[in-house]
Design a protein that fits this description.
By secondary structure, the protein is an alpha+beta fold. It has helices spanning 14-24, 43-50, 62-65, 79-89, 108-115, 120-126; strands at 2-3, 7-8, 28-33, 36-42, 67-68, 93-98, 101-107. The longest helix is centred in the N-terminal third of the chain and has 11 residues, at 14-24. Keywords: CBS domain.
């Protein structure tokens, strides 16, 4: 699991969520109403569900685009249980809740690192982010 949680309110604009993702160098944020996780918003959700459909990212809310009621795991759940949930629900990230409070996110990259640290996916996951220059 990647510890720590980055979250936005359901009424936050997609621009606000995207800027937070950029600042934190992440591809997802939880959508939370107080301590209650109400959704998961990914960079793909913003581009495919909103921008590609012509929605205005300044006025469209995170709550309107996120995947509601995300599948979650607990910090004590096994890697195999997390992988099975990802497979069953066709998701790449799972919020980690402890006592109903978000404490982290487990991703495919986290599973790759835990199960096969020498795999290509694990190597890519450990790599530093690029400097924004595609193809160099």
């Amino acid at each position: 699991m990647t510890p720590g949680v980055v979250a936005v309110r359901p009424d936050a604009s997609l621009v606000e969520a995207a800027r937070l993702m950029r600042a934190q160098d992440i591809g997802d944020v939880l959508v939370a109403d107080g301590q209650d996780v109400v959704g998961m918003l990914t960079d793909r959700d913003i581009t495919v569900r909103a921008v590609a459909e012509g929605a205005d990212p300044l006025t469209t809310s995170a709550g309107a685009v996120c995947t509601p009621d995300p599948v979650v795991v607990g910090p004590g759940d096994s890697v195999s249980a997390a992988a099975a949930l990802m497979r069953e629900h066709a998701v790449r990230r799972l919020p980690v809740l402890e006592g109903g409070v978000p404490v982290g996110v487990v991703s495919l990259a986290d599973l790759a690192e835990a199960e096969d640290p020498d795999s290509t996916l694990a190597d890519i996951s450990r790599a530093l982010p690029d400097d924004g220059r595609a193809g160099t």
